[in-house]
Amino acid sequence: MKIVAFGFEKNISEQVLKNLKTEEIHALKSDKSVIQCFVNNLFTDVPELVLGLGMYSGRDKDKLRIETSYNLGTEKFAINYFLEPSLHSKLSDGIGNSYCNFVSGLIMEKIKSDGLNTRYSFIHIPKSFDVDLAVSEIEGMLSSI
C-alpha cells in the first residue's frame, strides 16, 4: 500500500514526519504556490493513502487531532479520512482557515474531481506534544489499516 506523507517545514509536523516509516515524505513550505505545485504533482503516480501533518496551537493540546472536514468559503466539506483515533488522538472538526485547510481542500477537490480512490487523513499535532509519542501514535494508527 503506497502512503505519501507530508508536513510543514520548521514546526513539529516536520519533526514527526522525518521519523515516520512511510515510503514517501515531503516537508512543505507554508506558501500557497509551493502547496499548489505539491498537490498538482501528488497524483502523478496515484497513492492509495495521503497523510498530512500540521501544527496545532489551540485548546485540547493533549491529543492529536484527526480532522474530519475542511472549509471552502463559508461551507464545510468532509475529508474521507482513513485513520481511526487511538489512545492519544481524537476526531476533530476544526481545521480552520490555515495552510492546513488550504492543502486539504486542494487534495480533496482533486480526489473528487478526478474520481480517485485515494483516501486522505490530516492530523493536527499540538506544538507542545512529545514528538516520539506522536510518531508512535501515528505509526500505531497506520499499522491497523
Count of runs of 4 or more consecutive helical residues: 4
Given helix and strand content, the structural type is: alpha/beta
Question: Distance between the terminal alpha carbons, to the nearest Å?
Answer: 10 Å
The name of the CATH topology is Aminopeptidase
Order of helices and strands: EHEHEEEEEHEH
**Known CATH architecture:** 3-Layer(aba) Sandwich
Query: What is the makeup of the main sheet?
Result: 6 strands, mixed
Total domain units: 1
Which sequence of strands runs across the widest sheet? 2-1-3-8-4-7
Overall spatial form:
globular
Query: What is the CATH domain class?
Result: Alpha Beta
The low-confidence parts are none
Write out the CATH superfamily name. Answer: Peptidase C15, pyroglutamyl peptidase I-like
Q: Average pLDDT, to the nearest integer?
A: 95
The fraction of residues in strands falls at 25-35%
> Percentage of helical residues?
25-40%
Got a strand count? 8
Q: What Rg, in angstroms, do the CA atoms define?
A: 14 Å
